[in-house]
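Team,

Forwarding the record for the chain on the shared tracking sheet. I've put the sequence and predicted structure together so nobody has to dig through attachments.
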Amino acid sequence: MSILDKKLPQTPVRKSRGKRIIISIILVVLALILLVFTDISNDVALVAHFFAPPSHFTYHGHSGYVSAVAWSPDGKRIASASGDGTVQIWNASSGTTIYTYRGHDNDVFCLAWSPDGRYIASGGLDTTVQVWNAGNGHRIYTYHGHTDAVFSVVWSPDGTRIASASEDGTVQVWDAMTGGNVFTFRNSTPARGSPVPWNTVAWSPNGKRIAAGGIGDIQVWDAASGKNVVYYGYNGGIAHAVAWSPDGRYLAVGRSNDTVEVWDVTAVRNVYTYSGHTSDVLAVAWSPDGKRIASASADGTVQVWDAFTGDHAYVYRGHADFALGHFTPGAGVNSVAWSPDGTHIASAATDGTVQVWPARG
């Protein structure tokens, strides 16, 4: 009998079946661990995100981390500041770059549009705040009042003054076009002699008050005199961001203890604390209708939630992307901004991108 006439032995199947059983057991165990030790709604959201096509638009114009993002008052343009030393203005719909401002000598940490949309104020590591034309980049004025990095800048609602917060321990209020100083508020100086930095500053919608935060109390001052109106005691964690509600009744405070506190300004009372994040909250922004807050965190997410109950939370994971054909390790989200009509949100992160996505209720 030829070897070709012999029956070949059947391929054993026990081993392959055994492997499949082992793999199935491992998957079941992992699923049980997820169900027991994690939040089920977050697990479902992660799986849905994996299979769903991206709903956001991504701007890739910067070559370094993106520190700040802001919509123009008419909602047609977005400005973004970066560690690459530039501020870039681009079309909010198409992402086409309109202008790149290169006036700073180092990282740019903050920016703000003037209320009429004609100018931008930007500040950063070079200790200056520069005011320039948003259309052609022509520099109007450079403010040299600070002696260290500028972390936050904001225009008064009438567009005549600017407030800037700095590592040098001061918040300075000055004429937007001449640099004439209106007043300087200094933070307390510890025993070591180093100034305590201010991380964030915000002007109330009615123009009458200024709020600022850093290490220690949240301070609120009269915008005309610089006199302290009220302060919120140190409640744990550094204040990275403060934001007024559109009606000026409340302040949202993003802290290093992973929370966002909502304060009633008049009553000096905490009305709600949101604790959905797992790392420092670096930025907060109210929706134009004042009903929701978007909070950006070093945990790589932006979370959108009811401002007074924390309900209806939506977690945006675009900067910590895990989807078919695409994986981006978690990137801290440094800044977040609502479009003026409340339909979209822009977020900026250490991954070097700005992402624009539909706001969800």
